[in-house]
Amino acid sequence: MQVDHYENFPVASILLPRRLRKPVAAIYHFARAADDIADEGESSDEERLNQLDAFRAELDRIASNETPKMPLFQNLSSEIKQYALPLQPFYDLLDAFSQDVVKKRYENYAELFDYCRRSANPVGLLLLHLYGEATEINIAYSDAVCTSLQLINFWQDVAKDYAISRIYLPLDEMALFDVSESQIEEGIVDENFKNLMKFQTDRARELMLHGSPLGSILKGRIGIEMRMIIAGGMRILDKLKTADYDMYHRRPVLRPFDWVIMLAKSAPYYY
Question: Among 158, 206, 225, which residue's Cα sits nearest to residue 186?
Answer without folding.
Answer: 158
